[in-house]
Predict the 3D structure of the following.
Amino acid sequence: MYKLPTQIDWQRRKLLANMALSFAVFGLPIFGRIAAAEGIVEAWRSVQFKKDGLRCAVLKAGGFAMSPATLFPQASEEALSKHGLNTETIPFDIHSLFVDTGKNKIVIDPGGTGDNSGRLLGELRKIDIDPESIDTVIISHAHCDHYQACTSEKGVVNFPNARYYLQKREWDYWASAENAEENHHKQFSNLLLPIKEQFELVDGETEIVPGVQALLTPGHSPGHMTVHMGKSIAYTGDAILQPAQVVHQAWCAEFNRWPAQVLSSRAKFIKRVALDKALVVGTHFPSPAAGFIVPGSSGFRWAASSPTII
Ligand SMILES: [Zn+2]
């Protein structure tokens, strides 16, 4: 069992926000949680921040471990070590992003793993957000780690008052048993098909709700999208899986079905967020999963934002 964090005192944080100039990242308690599974140590931490008039929270919805051979088959052990990556297993966190625009309460990628799909609901409640108050759910793509918390194992819809947004081409792909990968197709059929009437299927670059834009970034899946909010906040989905890929953009996971498209979508995303000087939230980046993509003389680098940066 992991220790529950103390309840967040949002009012106090609001006060602190007013003291900050334009951008505040609030570090919440770092929750020492040790997961025995596969020897991976997971540090659970959540980050809240206010930026561009939006209240946001990066919420850890789960995590698992990946083999470097699957994740980065092109990378040498030396290159992995240079990026602080274990050459045996790489922790693969799952982070959802909560956004309150003032008009809409949004969850992007309500993810999880099969055995802890309710975790995200707990994380939302800890920041005083009732899942029933969520009116918008955005799913970057229909791999089940990005939507596992939409529905409970018992079939209860966890965000009953929300409209759900997914690219139409993504829906069509996963709805077709012939083309789709078996496990994800099964999860799609079990968890998303039953709530089809709650979905708005969008096509290409779209403003989902005022101030929140979807950018089509296919390759990882046919209708993958990244999400861009306010003036300069972005959510990666699986356009970039780990910070090392900001430097090594050509590192491409085995499970990327269309690698050439992945690389061009990744380049498009990186160019945009670097230009926007966006705060980037990486779904599978190590917690707290927030930072900036910074251009340099020989490419780009990842600058993680620390909760102590205000
Ligand atoms: Zn993923």
